[in-house]
């Protein structure tokens, strides 16, 4: 898809307003109306695609903003990776890349979904933000038994502005030696493990900052953490706009997401759902 | 990954408790401890993999629960699809499949991510739940200009228990003729468009139910909608456990996700972030 081949040209309901109008008009402007404005706007200057863009089909838009790498490994948890990817990918000129041990499809813990790693770890030396998602048990165990992967995390971490994790991704950061003696969080069910195994001071908060290390609680907490990161990277106004763009005004129909307030029965059932939904 | 090749067998910290223990013990049980229990549990009876499982590498676990299909099209919005996939994939025996016009990788609106469609639309006749994610402008316009895709949606819809959308996915359902005269929601910026173009009665709620049609607001709202769906499909207790499993106790650092409360400046900036982050 490029702007040159914008299908709106043949669409029955074009709204050929100029882009300036799109950015300043009020209620009449809709996201879909924006399609027309993009089509009518002058084409931006093209730059030469970076090698990985040419190779992978990633897009050619200007990417002078923060460089964000999301690590994928077999058995990662889908939303751990995709929630922050969605938020951070909306920042101006952000370059968000999914990175695997090798390029190619990486399947999630449930086995239901494969996401493509567009880059391999040996192609990536520098990142502004490294994010390590959590995963199913087998996936996390395989990751922490993988010295090459842990070495890469340590190497990239040296130069990051932020090294971050979601859910049991903090177990992987801990196994890489990055969380020893630090305050950090993880999925509620892994709190004791990370404390006893890695000497991490578990904190039952949505996200925890310790220097440039930023860890978040289970799965969905990565979205909240990513909004904080967005503010750090692009300013609070942009972070607030990203939140509005994603209409993140959460209103779950139930109020059952807090482990500290949950019954033991519900905790057991939650763990059983996790275990049974994990591919094996 | 199969249980037969569980890497835990060689892991330095095995915790070989029995699965029964995993399900009934209290604080000492962690998600990672669960790894050992899975490894130690007797292997479940195997069934023959369904043809699409054998072809795609999807997993072999029992799938007698609800069959959920997530439609992917070029330019879909990542979190629209993956938020509900994460929730619904945790339901007992749920069979969640990502479906494209053809099998293969489908890239998101930002161009940053490719997700694999494991099935093609012509392989899928019956679903308990159809979910149509929203997308970038070009992606949605291409989808509503695609009669074959709209025909497939209409055909599958005849037999669904629930036909659902996230964000501008409701524009696609509307273009398929499924929302005419109905109450529905969409991304705040597409509210006027869907009303004026398709005769839909827009409702500014997180999700809106109209018969078996269930639409949700922008992007992140799909997670909230999926929890309601989870309760409908598997009962409220399971839905609550899924919420706890995903630690969905949202606490964004800002309170800027509601368009009705946002300034015009913030709305304009949000629309600009969406436009500029969309691949072109």
From TrEMBL, chains A, B:
Q: Which domain of life is it from?
A: Bacteria
Domain annotation DJ-1/PfpI: ranges: 67-230
Q: Where is this region: Disordered?
A: 39-66
Q: Which GO terms describe its biological process?
A: regulation of DNA-templated transcription
Question: What is this protein identified as?
Answer: DJ-1/PfpI family protein
Q: Which organism is it from?
A: Streptomyces triticirhizae
